[in-house]
Structures are given as structure tokens and as C-alpha cells.
Design a protein that fits this description.
Blueprint lengths: L8 E5 L20 H13 L4 E4 L7 E2 L2 E2 L10 H9 L6 E7 L5 H14 L4 E6 L4 H4 L13 H18 L2 E5 L6 E5 L10 E4 L4 H10 L2 E5 L3 H12 L13 E6 L1 E3 L3 H15 L2 H12 L29 H5 L4 H15 L3 H9 L4 E3 L1 H13 L5 E4 L9 H13 L12 H4 L7 H7 L1
Parallel strand pairs: 1-2, 1-14, 2-5, 5-6, 6-9, 9-10, 10-11, 11-14, 12-13
Antiparallel strand pairs: 3-4, 7-8
Helix pairs in contact: 2-3, 3-5, 6-16, 9-12, 13-14
Amino acid sequence: MSTPRKQVRLAAHFPGVNNTTVWGDPAAGSHMDLASFAHLARTAERAMFDLFFLAEGLSLREHAGHLHDLDVVGRPDAMTILAALSAVTEHIGLAATLTTTYHEPLEVARQLATLDHLSDGRAAWNLVTSTDAVSGANFRRGAYLPYDGRYDRAQELLALADRLWAQGPGPFDTTGRQVTLRGEWDLDTPPQGRPVILQAGDSDAGREFAAAQADAVFTRAGTIPEGQAFVTDVKGRLARYGRRPEDLLILPGATYVLGDTDEDAREQAAHVRRQQVSGPTAIVFAEQLWNRDLSAYDPDGPLPDVDPVEGEITIAPGSIPARAFSGKRHETVEQLRALAAKDGLSLRDVMVETRARHSFVGSPQTVADEIDAQVQADACDGFILVPHLTPGGLDEFADRVVPLLQERGSLRTEREPGTLRERLGLPRWTPEQGAAGA
Ligand SMILES: Cc1cc2nc3c(=O)[nH]c(=O)nc-3n(C[C@H](O)[C@H](O)[C@H](O)COP(=O)(O)O)c2cc1C
């Protein structure tokens, strides 16, 4: 008998306040109506996805010392949306991103336990440790937590939540470096024991935390060799915590553009990329890289003729892309200059080419092939797909790519019974595992 194919895990990311979302398309809908969230979640559910996923943004973003001009809308509260979705879906996992930096330990533990009960064991938590001054100002303690303390607090907060979920109603107390609390816990153990834990954070500390504690990692998509290197690094850390490689799923975020043919898809992707990178967006992208004010430059003109500034990030302190360029700003700018010179590109053209690349572009067959190839090559375990249109951006994927993945046996055609944790093949969490990771 042949061994069964490795299964592709799929999650649907509701897009939102960022340039991935094509706001101007006539088919673009509301980012606030329950109908939009329900449409995407139900589409993902009928397409046998494992998870519906919401990011978190606790304020509009900061850029150049003030609120990001391009942010036209914030993100509504994830737990409230997921509670509503638990009533209009039956099987799909419901994942909320919640930062441990600002949320209170009891609040997070109660919300997740409640969602797990309401949804019969479908709750998931994407644990992030973000810290930015603008979000911090919305919270009582402000941006009090130094970068180095964030994973300490994450660890203590999760350890407390684990204890509360396991113990059921009764008194508790905990003393830590970041979390010291004594109180009464009032909820029964959630159906999953522990909701599924995702982690998103690429630093060494983030990877170690994931190896010790997470069920899945939300990371960036790349080539097959890049994915394999990430998997080898992160899964290679699991043995230290008594865990097996299959106990942690690696799920890169990925975008896609489909067409009837590969050529058609390439044309559409070029069109979508230009919509995603307006002139003002191109300037913001350039400022994240140059780390200095470039507002005087014309996006349709040549690349700025000034040098980038290494060192402290002043222009977009909380931004992940701005951080990602650290230490290699000069080198990256030189690469962009070479690209612009070779193809005669404007600043905006260069940003369209380099900052809005889609992960998968092609006919349904090509996209299904590429997704499956990444998973079968162990470059990841599946993808968190980010459509560029809300709420209908997943429809075509569900109708045209999913059946091809099913035909080749890489995606189930029927739901397994059980909780989200059981369906993902993840072990039930035990208190000993938490102790090993502490
Ligand atoms: C793929 C990915 C998705 C993320 N999504 C969010 C998010 O929705 N909200 C948020 O506040 N931070 C998000 N983050 C950022 C993390 O909060 C932050 O970068 C991380 O926790 C910092 O840890 P690190 O130093 O280990 O990277 C995301 C990070 C990655 C890599």
C-alpha cells in the first residue's frame, strides 16, 4: 500500500488595514459587516480549510511620527467577530491574534476558553508579542515593556492560562517577573483542553518560544529552499522540549492571483500589484527601507538619490518591514538601483515589482501544483492564504484550486470528527509540556 500523501493545511486570513487589500475594486465589500466575515469563513469551511484567521491591530499604524496616512480603517475586535462566527459555522477553526504585551492574562484566558466552549472546541490563539508606542498608548501601562521582556511576559501569561484551563473553577495564584496574580478562576476546562496556539514572530526568541509552546507558526512565504531552512531550524528545536516534528505546523502567509491560463494570471497579477501600490504607498515603502523622510520625492520619478540611514528606526518604528531591512539598507537600495537602471523603472514601478509580489500566480492547476510541491517538499505544512479582495477573494480558490488538491489526495474531501486540535493531528496538551518549556 502506498503511503498517504502529506495533507495540505489551509487557513483563510481576513485581509484588512494594509496594502494587500484592493479597496478600489468594484467587488470590494465592507471590512466591518458581519456578512463579510461570514462569507469568507463559510467559503473557507466549505473548501475544507482548517482555520479562519484574524490579525490584530490595536490602533492605526504609526509612520513618520504620526498616524499612517494610508490607514483608512482599523481592525474590529477579533474575539467578538469569532464569537459571532461560531454561530454561523460548524467545523472551521476560529483563530484570533492577541498580543501578550497589552492584554491582561485573565482576560485572554477567559475569552479563549469561552470561545472554545461556544464553538465546541474550535478556538485558536495566534500569540504575538508586538510592542509599538501608538498601540501602547491605548493601554493603561503604555508601551512599558522593553523588547527583551516580551517573550517573558508571553511565557508567563500562557503558563497561567494553561493552568487555569486545566484546573477548572477554583483559586489560583502565580508569581512571576511579569505576571503576579491571585484570584478565583470560574470556567470549566475548554473542550480542547488548550485552544490551538499559533505563534508569529521571526526572531530567535520567537522561534524558541514556538518550539517550546506553539502548535503552529505563522511565518512568511518564500522559496522551497528558504522554507526548508526555516522548517529545519524551528522543528530542529522541538526535541529539546520532548516534542516530535509533527507536533508543530509551519504555515506561511501567502497571496495568490488566479487566471484561466498562466499568462492570463500574470497579466491580472500585474494589474493587482499596481492597485496595491499607489504613489503614496510607494513612498511609504521607500521610507521603510531608507529609514528617512522621502515625502519630497515623486513616486513616478527616479529612486531617491540619497543614502538610507542604518541604526535606530525612526520613520516607522512598529513596522515589520522596516525592521526586516535593518542592517542591509545600503545593500538593498543598491539592488533596487540596479533593477531600476536595467529596466528603466520609476520609484513606484520598483516598489510594485519588489514589494507586492504574489506568492502564487497562475492557472488553478499551476497554483495547486506549487502549493502541493511546497508541502510535499517539507518547506511548510500548508498556508495561511490572504486574498486581496474582501469578502469574495477566496471564492475562486475554493471552486477551482481546492478540487485539484483533493483530486491528488493532498486535501481531505470530508471532515474528520473531533475538536480542531484533534483534526489537526496535534497531541492533547499536558501540563508537563508547559513545565519543559518554562
Ligand atoms: C507572519 C506574521 C504575522 C503577524 N501578525 C501580527 C498581527 O496580526 N498583529 C500584531 O500585532 N503583530 C503581528 N505580527 C508581529 C508580531 O507581533 C511581532 O513581530 C512579533 O511578535 C515580534 O516578535 P519577534 O521579535 O520574534 O519577531 C506578525 C508577525 C508575523 C511574522
